[in-house]
Automatic annotation (TrEMBL):
<comment type="pathway">
    <text>Cofactor biosynthesis; thiamine diphosphate biosynthesis; 4-methyl-5-(2-phosphoethyl)-thiazole from 5-(2-hydroxyethyl)-4-methylthiazole: step 1/1.</text>
</comment>
<comment type="similarity">
    <text>Belongs to the Thz kinase family.</text>
</comment>
<keyword id="KW-0460">Magnesium</keyword>
<keyword id="KW-0418">Kinase</keyword>
<keyword id="KW-0547">Nucleotide-binding</keyword>
<dbReference type="InterPro" id="IPR000417">
    <property type="entry name" value="Hyethyz_kinase"/>
</dbReference>
<keyword id="KW-0784">Thiamine biosynthesis</keyword>
<comment type="function">
    <text>Catalyzes the phosphorylation of the hydroxyl group of 4-methyl-5-beta-hydroxyethylthiazole (THZ).</text>
</comment>
<dbReference type="GO" id="GO:0009228">
    <property type="term" value="P:thiamine biosynthetic process"/>
</dbReference>
<dbReference type="GO" id="GO:0004417">
    <property type="term" value="F:hydroxyethylthiazole kinase activity"/>
</dbReference>
<feature type="binding site">
    <location>
        <position position="138"/>
    </location>
    <ligand>
        <name>ATP</name>
    </ligand>
</feature>
<dbReference type="GO" id="GO:0005524">
    <property type="term" value="F:ATP binding"/>
</dbReference>
<feature type="binding site">
    <location>
        <position position="17"/>
    </location>
    <ligand>
        <name>substrate</name>
    </ligand>
</feature>
<protein>
    <recommendedName>
        <fullName>Hydroxyethylthiazole kinase</fullName>
        <ecNumber>2.7.1.50</ecNumber>
    </recommendedName>
</protein>
<keyword id="KW-0808">Transferase</keyword>
<feature type="binding site">
    <location>
        <position position="92"/>
    </location>
    <ligand>
        <name>ATP</name>
    </ligand>
</feature>
<feature type="binding site">
    <location>
        <position position="165"/>
    </location>
    <ligand>
        <name>substrate</name>
    </ligand>
</feature>
Length: 244
């Protein structure tokens, strides 16, 4: 939570980790966006997430599902598939999580993907059609998938997968970008692309100075804070690919 909160603050968002059942619905109704992260849930947090989804749905608040380790553990897999009926505005996960969430594979090794990003495209497309939302597959290249659009984002650094919290933080940034885009009338697909571009560009900058994962983490947060839109555009390659 601390890592995610620091990342959100670095990009100008205002985080609140409100996961108690008695408060989450009310907070979701007044928030700009909501992240549902199935990281290490307790019974109360499962209920808190359900309440947050209910509050977001009633208020029309964009919400993001991060299906952490779905496929590897049954309870969270059942939970994530259950809440798909409420149509998340975006889903963000690694290839194995996306494949497992769609019911087309068994998942990865815990939070680590064992499936290739490109191989998860059919699963992402299926989920995008099912939810009428955006599905992002994170990996060496990121693919952002909507029902009729697929965008490839090339950015990032090899140290990112071995630094705790980068994936969860990306889910939170996706929610923040969706919230900002929703207010401004910007397409959800473009918002999810921008979140991945910002995250990956910061990884590229941090990798220039980091000597290992320990020094990479603070450099990455600093880069998220300091990067301009123009610099992000210079660093990141964004390509539209066939949606078939």
């Amino acid at each position: 939570m601390e890592i995610t909160a620091n990342v959100l603050l670095a990009v100008g968002a205002s985080p609140a980790m409100c996961d108690t059942p008695s408060e989450s619905a009310d907070f979701a109704a007044i928030a700009s966006a909501v992240l549902i992260n199935a990281g290490t849930p307790t019974r109360d947090q499962y209920e808190g997430m359900r309440q947050a989804i209910q509050g977001a749905t009633v208020a029309g608040t964009p919400w993001v599902l991060d299906p952490v380790a779905v496929g590897a553990l049954q309870e969270r897999t059942d939970f994530a598939r259950e809440i798909l009926q409420f149509a998340p505005h975006a889903i963000r996960g690694n290839a194995s999580e996306i494949v497992a969430l769609a019911g087309l594979g068994s998942g990865g090794r815990g939070v680590d993907a064992t499936d290739d990003v490109a191989a998860a495209l059919p699963a992402a497309k299926q989920l995008a059609v099912q939810t009428k939302g955006v599905v992002a597959i994170s990996g060496e290249s990121d693919f952002i998938v909507s029902a009729h659009q697929v965008t490839k984002v090339d950015s990032g650094h090899p140290l990112m997968p071995i630094v705790i919290g980068t994936g969860c933080a990306l889910g939170a940034l996706t929610a923040a970008y969706l919230g900002a885009a929703h207010i401004r009338g910007i397409a959800a697909h473009d918002a999810v692309v921008a979140a991945h571009a910002h995250t990956g560009a910061a990884g590229m900058v941090a990798g220039e100075s980091a000597r290992g994962p320990g020094s990479f983490a603070p450099a990455w947060v600093d880069a998220l804070y300091n990067l301009t839109p123009e610099h992000i555009a210079e660093l990141v390659t964004v390509q539209e690919v066939s949606s078939s």
